[in-house]
Amino acid sequence: MKAWSLLGNSQKLDGGAMFGNAPKAMWEKWVDVDDLNRIDLACRALLVDGIHGKRVLFETGVGAFFEPKLRERYGIQESSHVLLEELARIGLSDADIDVVVLSHLHFDHAGGLLASWAEGQPPRLLFPNARFVVGSEHWQRAQDPHPRDRASFIPELNALLAESGRLELVAGDFTPALGESVRFHHSDGHTPGLMLAEIRGEHGSVVFCADLIPGRAWVHLPITMGYDRNAELVIDEKKAFLADMLARDVMLFFTHDAEMAVSKISRDDKGRYTTTHDQANWLAYSL
């Protein structure tokens, strides 16, 4: 297997929202913050070629589907569809992807499924040859969101996925499209039915951490986001998840870390989780 880290646009969001109840005096030591109290966030995707004979994209980033007013509101930094540009740089297009795996359907993870915004044009689904893999529990959430996270979903996207005839809902730890090369871990603390895909390669394994652990700072167990549905549950889930990943030497892939795509984890002399062997990018990395 070969793996690439790909940017799917980037954002600036309020640091207080991203670090929950952690005080700014703590989190401003970990990240850069601007005069509007915003921090830089990537919306990163993982491309792996050779899973069950398929070219698989894990998430698509936020993309460029927002109209200009909403793009500014949500701090999207680029007007173009960066993921498509990233694919083109390695000689691919969205039509070359066989499977797209979505940890969940919040717009900063799934918006890249849609073509760039154009005035007067309805949303249009990209990736014409791909199967779309989504957790069945989360799919139900997306159909009838809670008022707390309703704005995080794209209603038009739900309809387009359902109408595509290529939607594959996952109820367990594996899915037919990917065989046993990808195992799903499940989480409910950020949103019901979040799926974290662990890719098992010949030379090692990596897990797409999605919003359970958005970046290196959130490896520290008490750190959660204000966007999380249940902060205490997130902490409990991270505790079990990280213990498992550390015991099996599974690498962590971060979607929102502005600087690093992949890290290994360790524990310091106080038992606190930290990252090691940080890697900014993967370019045809051998798994």
What brief labels describe this structure?
single chain; 287 residues; alpha/beta; Metallo-beta-lactamase, Chain A; 7-stranded mixed beta sheet; 6-stranded mixed beta sheet; 21% helix; globular
Describe the structure.
- With 287 residues, the chain is an alpha/beta fold.
- The chain is 21% helix and 28% strand.
- The protein has eight helices and 13 strands.
- The protein has helices at 15-18, 24-27, 68-73, 82-89, 107-110, 136-143, 155-164, 231-247; strands spanning 2-14, 38-51, 54-58, 99-102, 131-135, 167-170, 182-187, 194-200, 205-208, 251-253, 262-267, 273-279, 285-286.
- The strands form two sheets. It has a seven-stranded mixed beta sheet with strand order 6-5-4-3-2-1-13. A six-stranded mixed beta sheet has the order 7-8-9-10-11-12, covered by helices on one side.
- A hairpin with an 8-residue loop joins strand 10 (251-253) and strand 11 (262-267).
- 46% of the residues are buried.
